[in-house]
Structure formats: C-alpha cells, structure tokens
Design a protein that fits this description.
Blueprint (H helix, E strand, L loop, with lengths): L5 E5 L5 H15 L6 E3 L5 H4 L7 H14 L2 E5 L7 H12 L4 E4 L11 H6 L13 H9 L1 E4 L2 H12 L8
Parallel strand pairs: 1-2, 1-3, 3-4, 4-5
Helix pairs in contact: 4-6
Length: 169
C-alpha cells in the first residue's frame, strides 16, 4: 500500500516513560507503510531539545506547521488529564478538518457495567472511573475516533490509509 500520508503524533513528551512509549508506538505505526511519514515532536531537536532554547512562539509555529501538513493526527489521551499541548493540537486539527484517532488506555474505563462501581458514583469522592475533558473528547469524535488498545489504533490507521472514513469505524 503506497500512501504518501503524513501523520502527526500528539503525545506528552516530558517524562522518560513518555518518550519511550511514544517511540515504541511510532515505530509500530511506521512499520505499517514505508511511504508513511510520522512527525514525532520529540524528534524535532530544534524545539524539543530541552538543554537548548526554544521560546513559545518557536514551539507553537513549528508544531502547528506540522499539524497543518498532516493528513491524520494520532493523539494519546492517557494521564491525569489530557496533556495541554495535545489538547491544543487536537483543537488545531479539528479546526482544519484533520481527522484524529485518539488512544485512551486508562484501565479505569473497564467495568462500566459493574453495578457496585455505578452505585459508588452516588457517593461523594467515590468515582471509580477516569474523567476526560468532554470538550476535547467531542472535538475528536466529531472528526475521528477514540480507541482503547494499540491493536485497535493500528487497525484504524490501516483502514484510514485504505480510504475508510473514521466516522464509520
């Protein structure tokens, strides 16, 4: 499959664990098709070498330019909240009609049919589930999809590259 598609990979990149996971997942995405270009911001030393200097405008211009060149955005939603930079990048993608496939692996989303967990929602401070900002989630769902596993993410990328509409997946 020759695609010549450009993917923007939006993810937190400040902890060593983030950097390793991002690289791990991008390597899997790049193996889908050798013609695929994946922009991983942490690989852009011009703005993300934290021993050097890049001001806010340099970072905003560089990453926004890459978002706007993209045919698809992959966004990682895991963490205490959706990373602020990721949320901003999702907003740019939505405004420009660039589809987003988001990965949300938080284990607290499991058990949605567990009656004890559901009943606990009636007790203050006993929410057994994780909350994501619904505005950002809505922007993704209006122009893409959210999956909960790496395999589902890779499958949706393949389907997108084959021409499938993310709204139908």
């Amino acid at each position: 499959m020759t695609t010549s598609k450009h993917i923007y990979f939006a993810a937190p990149l400040f902890a060593q664990s983030d950097l390793f996971y991002n690289q791990h997942l991008v390597e899997k995405i790049r193996k889908i098709d050798t013609e695929l270009t994946v922009y991983l911001p942490q690989e852009n030393a011009g703005i993300n070498d934290k021993t050097a200097y890049a001001d806010s405008k340099m970072i905003a211009l560089a990453d926004t330019d890459e978002v706007l060149k993209s045919d698809l955005m992959i966004a990682l939603l895991d963490g205490l909240t959706i990373d602020a930079g990721v949320a901003s990048e999702i907003g740019v993608a939505y405004a420009k009609g660039i589809p987003v496939i988001a990965l949300y692996t938080d284990s607290r989303q499991q058990g949605a049919d567990n009656l004890k967990k559901l009943k606990a929602l009636q007790t203050p401070a006993e929410n057994q589930f994780h909350y994501l900002n619904l505005y950002t989630v809505g922007l993704i769902k209006l122009n893409g999809s959210i999956v909960s596993t790496e395999d589902a993410l890779l499958e949706q990328i393949k389907l997108f590259l084959e021409g499938s509409d993310l709204h139908d997946l």
